[in-house]
Amino acid sequence: MNCFAMFRGLEKVRISAIAAILVASLTLAANGHAETYMTVSDVPVDVTAKNAAAARDQAIATAQGKAFDRLVKRLVPNAADQARIHPSQEMIEGFVQDFGVENERVSPVRYIGLYSVRFRASLVKKYLTDSGVNAVGDQQQVLVVPLYRTATGALLWDGGNDWRAAWDRGGFGDGPVTLILPNGDSFDTGSLSAAAAGNGDMGGLGTLIGRYHAAGVIVATAAPRDPALGASSGLSLTLATYDQTGPKGAQTLTINPVPGEQAQKTLLRGVSASADLLETGWRQAIANGGSTGLVVSSGAPEQADVSAGQTASSAITTYRIGLPLVGVAEWVKVRNQLAATGGVQRISLDALTREGAAFTLDFSGDALALQAALSGSGYVLVQTTPANAAGPGSFQLRAVTSVSPGPSTAQ
Question: How big, in percent rounded to 5, are the helix, strand and coil portions of the chain?
């Protein structure tokens, strides 16, 4: 049964509660490897109807359509091909694998919500192929290093880097490449200085590329057009791209000032314009040559990226993990932290709500090695179902303070 259709006419059940149950059930799922690039997050809906139930039904259909439109823009680099994609609402419902409600408000006649929707990769790809449309095969992950040049000097990891804070707000990621930020922990700060980032030092940049298993890194440099007035005077931006082979070119753009606009909003406009420019370039590259042009290193991870209890030759094991959350922003923080953990090869989000996330993690080692790699992270891996012939079982990632004593940690 289609997961959206299940909710039609269920007036007494809140979607958020069902979505929370969905997270728990997905943790135990044993089918297929989830693909993060098939998940569309932050889909807003605002619907008014004759009653709350009707508004919710319309909102669900609207969320599906908007999410699929964004998915098409992500997967299909050619604008003319995008315009040819017009599946029916019933077909879109069939493409949906599951979804989560990130936020919702309900009145007697109005429903406002924020959704994450995951689509079935095989069905979507078959539909695009049958429609004669070429689509990207997978998303690459690219690191963004925001460098902010102020009147007092260049800021990279410093707390006063408002440019990095703007990137940290997100609001991008519907292109063929996933943009992520480094954690900014002691390893990062020790690997790359502001001066090294500005000079394109491949020693430091290459270390971060390896640590985050990224296809490349963007040094996104922003400078106020009038240093005395700050970002509200407008911005001069330079986006320099690097992969493990070295520099791949740079692009520049200017963000003009808007009278009365606060500096934070100017910086956010700069982030949006930067992401749009990068994604447009990657789409064109894929359309012309079939790839982004970023060369992914096939070598072994950096030695500093190998945790105790594992080696570079450890077998890769897939773990299905649930994570209780206090908000969607916490997932972004945990995901970035996991991406920087030694031995982690891939993280795929299966479902996301305000209460929790379900994800799949590929790790070079057994459960004990994964637990060791997570030591000091503030989280502990707890086994919730035992291992069997099909795999290592299922797990939950819990904050250290929330773990109850007992023999339930990974054995």
Answer: 35, 30, 35
